[in-house]
Amino acid sequence: MTNRKLIAGNWKMNGSLAANEALLDALLQGVGAPNCDVAVCVPAPYLAQVQAKVAGTPIALGAQDVSAQPQGAFTGEQSAAMLNEFGVRYAIVGHSERRQYHGESDEAVAAKTAAALARGITPIVCVGETLAEREAGRTEEVVKRQLAAVIHVNGHCISEIVVAYEPVWAIGTGKTASPEQAQGVHAVLRAQLHHAASEHAAGIRILYGGSMNAANAAELLSQPDIDGGLIGGASLKAPDFLQIIAAAR
Ligand code: PGA
């Protein structure tokens, strides 16, 4: 089974009203009818702006985080219901920057995953090892533990989730995992999904993220278990992001 690929941009804490406008104009001009699904995950203050720009286009709207809570005294957080009001289709959960700088545990990531699913938002669940963990030979153990936390989210089918393998040492560093290294971990994740839900495993998209760019995308995306990309830096440059979209088929 070959999945329709998903190319998702993660703008992180970048952009401005003017810069977003220019980036989206260029993307919309160049994207045509893509052979893959495309999304941009934008900072929360720009959801309304980007919703208006991408409505009725092949570009879907994504958020970079979602609260595990439905409402109430959680200063600074955004609920899945609020994201829903802005047409948000995807929400990144458990990005390594959230795990690292905001202390998000596997349990917190699972709760956020459940909150997104309950509102019909597809969570893009990030997993990945640090350099120290890789060097200690712990890559498999770490990514399997992170994935296991979200596999049995109450009442939902695992096939509603997108997984993103993002080795922490490759994020924003220019050091991409080699296609073989990435495929190796993707195969481990696929096997784990197969074990948990054999009838759905093949259809769950596993994205690669970590310094994916216009030059290396085609080779990474041609690996059998790489079903798309989560792209940080290169998603802020329209020609680069468009080239990655073109490489996904
Ligand atoms: P990068 O970021 O493409 O800039 O390495 C990817 C990510 O963190 O999602």
List the helices and strands and how they pair.
Layout: E1 6-10, H1 17-31, E2 37-41, H2 47-54, E3 59-63, H3 80-85, E4 90-93, H4 96-101, H5 106-118, E5 122-127, H6 131-135, H7 139-151, E6 162-165, H8 179-196, E7 206-209, H9 217-221, E8 228-231, H10 238-247
Parallel strand pairs: 1-2, 1-8, 2-3, 3-4, 4-5, 5-6, 6-7, 7-8
Bound molecules: 2-phosphoglycolic acid.
2-phosphoglycolic acid (PGA) is lined by residues 10, 166, 171-172, 209-212, 230-234.
Q: Tell me the distance between the termini.
A: 13 Å
The residue-averaged pLDDT reads 95
Question: How is the main sheet built?
Answer: 8 strands, parallel, barrel
Q: What's the structural domain tally?
A: 1
Segments where pLDDT lies below 50 for 5+ residues?
A: none
Features:
249 residues; alpha/beta; TIM Barrel; eight-stranded parallel barrel; 40% helix; globular; binds 2-phosphoglycolic acid
Short description:
The chain is of the alpha/beta class and 249 residues long.
Characterization of this structure:
The protein has 249 residues and is an alpha/beta fold. It has one domain (6-247): Aldolase class I (TIM Barrel). The chain has ten helices and eight strands. It has helices at residues 17-31, 47-54, 80-85, 96-101, 106-118, 131-135, 139-151, 179-196, 217-221, 238-247, and strands at 6-10, 37-41, 59-63, 90-93, 122-127, 162-165, 206-209, 228-231. The chain has an eight-stranded parallel beta barrel with strand order 1-2-3-4-5-6-7-8, surrounded by five helices. Helix 1 links the parallel strand 1 and strand 2. The mean pLDDT is 95. The structure holds 2-phosphoglycolic acid. The site of 2-phosphoglycolic acid (PGA) has 13 residues, from strand 8.
